[in-house]
Amino acid sequence: xxxxxxxxxxxxxxxxxxxxxxxxxxxxxxxxxxxxxxxxxxxxxxxxxxxxxxxxxxxxxxxxxxxxxxxxxxxxxxxxxxxxxxxxxxxxxxxxxxxxxxxxxxxxxxxxxxxxxxxxxxxxxxxxxxxxxxxxxxxxxxxxxxxxxxxxxxxxxxxxxxxxxxxxxxxxxxxxxxxxxxxxxxxxxxxxxxxxxxxxxxxxxxxxxxxxxxxxxxxxxxxxxxxxxxxxxxxxxxxxxxxxxxxxxxxxxxxxxxxxxxxxxxxxxxxxxxxxxxxxxxxxxxxxxxxxxxxxxxxxxxxxxxxxxxxxxxxxxxxxxxxxxxxxxxxxxxxxxxxxxxxxxxxxxxxxxxxxxxxxxxxxxxxxxxxxxxxxxxxxxxxxxxxxxxxxxxxxxxxxxxxxxxx
Length: 407
Prior knowledge:
By secondary structure, the protein is mainly alpha-helical. It has one domain (11-35, 115-400): Glycosyltransferase, CATH 1.50.10. 48% of the residues lie in helices and 5% in strands. The strands form four sheets. Strands 3-4-5 form a three-stranded antiparallel beta sheet. It has a three-stranded antiparallel beta sheet with strand order 6-7-8. Strands 1-2 form a two-stranded antiparallel ribbon. Helix 3 runs parallel beside helix 6 (116-131), helix 12 packs antiparallel against helix 13 and helix 15 packs antiparallel against helix 16.
């Protein structure tokens, strides 16, 4: 009879840590609940002064998914509340707010507009609707959903069938990604599948032709040939999807979130999935904690550098969106590993993710410095807790958060 494997005690400690993190995540989300929905971070003087005691579109959507998977009756019951609040303050043209200031009952749409709040809102609504045996959420919010989709379709290129956006207008809101953006269009394809929208096949094909032009057959369209002409001549890493493609320039810093969403949203086949995960491994994005959000930060000497990136000294190299470690995205990393069939590794990375959230007394800190690992941003981040619960579900074989079944 064989004895226990050499790492049995390590595995047991990891499982205990994961279970503790699950309980802490549920506790944090319950703490951060308000009558109008989940707040971005734990309320307090600092959160109030920095605008985190608000309901953010993308945060509330990610949280809704994690809350629905939590196994906690209160969180499950309140999962849709923030989404309903966002829908109530939806713009006349259909856009979902970047955030809602609860004190003023006022919607904010960011400097250049926030494109991904609307996408995440639609993804989360569909997810909750599918899990509710009685259903009815999509039906109840149908007029707002129709307006949100119409607003997105107005920004879709009519030959590429990909969304176009300005820079600094998605979750990485002080990064220079613009034109056709990887992260945004992965979500757009997801929305198209979930809501049965037209031209999803063209979106899928053009996504791979534009963001990874090295292995794709270019469409017979001169605009596509011109855009990819610059990329093929200059791009370095040919394994990752490009973070964005504009008229004559592109992003090759290695957008980890965008690449993970490409896998999770069904845009990568088996070989592309393996290729992408190998490239992220080579870049060491999950060491020591999952996960650093770019492979190579944009330095101040780069032509892509923007003055706003140094605002509040926030987006310097290895910080914030420019190379910081985000436990939020770590949750999607675990989900991607699980979806790729790497279940053992997904569980190991889940334990590492729990350690990242446990730092500084279970702070669930917004981000960590990509080199020193010093905590940055706001403590008590709701979507860190929610992403952990999503990752736990995926690692245990659920995979429910990314079940893209067309209606």
